[in-house]
């Protein structure tokens, strides 16, 4: 009994929500840094005192992805941070979309999910319930292999590099 309670021999398992929480914190930190760096010369953000600007950056990072609220007009921000918010909104809905796809087996082919005959697992065929995590991980891996992520990266880099020209409304034809 003592061996079971010894934390050196049997460390407690990590709850499944902790890695997801850590990922969210990394994404929030990235959004805060992008907000502070890309909007250094934006008039709306410059008018905010520095200590409130940092708090505002954290609020924007958290609320834009989850609640859709904003403390500064999103249209007045740098196009790179707008693109970052778009990508973060896509990332935040991705686990839900994958879970919905898991339950809607009949719609998989209409969504473009084609599993080669040799790769079908029991969870995908409906036989095993313990493989759902494996299915979701495999689906995320396949999703990341799509060109969409490269398009997002290219769009983000273009928005950062050409931010002034994108935001200049007088330059439109």
Structure description:
The protein is an all-alpha fold. It has one domain (20-171). Helices cover 63% and strands 0% of the residues. The chain contains 9 helices and no strands. Helix 2 packs across helix 4, helix 4 packs parallel to helix 5 (79-103) and helix 5 (79-103) packs across helix 7. The radius of gyration is 21 Å and the shape is globular. The mean pLDDT is 75.
Question: What would you say about this model in short?
Answer:
With 173 residues, the chain is an all-alpha fold. It has helices at residues 2-5, 17-38, 43-46, 50-66, 79-103, 122-125, 132-145, 148-161, 163-167.
Write the layout of secondary structure elements.
Layout: H1 2-5, H2 17-38, H3 43-46, H4 50-66, H5 79-103, H6 122-125, H7 132-145, H8 148-161, H9 163-167
Helix pairs in contact: 2-4, 2-5, 4-5, 5-7, 5-8
**What is the mean predicted local confidence, pLDDT?**
75
Q: What percent of the residues sit in helical stretches (DSSP H or I)? A: 55-70%
Query: What's the shape?
Result: globular
Overall number of domains: 1
Structural class by helix and strand composition: mainly alpha
Q: pLDDT under 50 segments (min length 5)?
A: none
Biggest sheet overview: none
Oligomer: single chain
Strand content: under 5%
Secondary-structure element pattern, one letter each: HHHHHHHHH
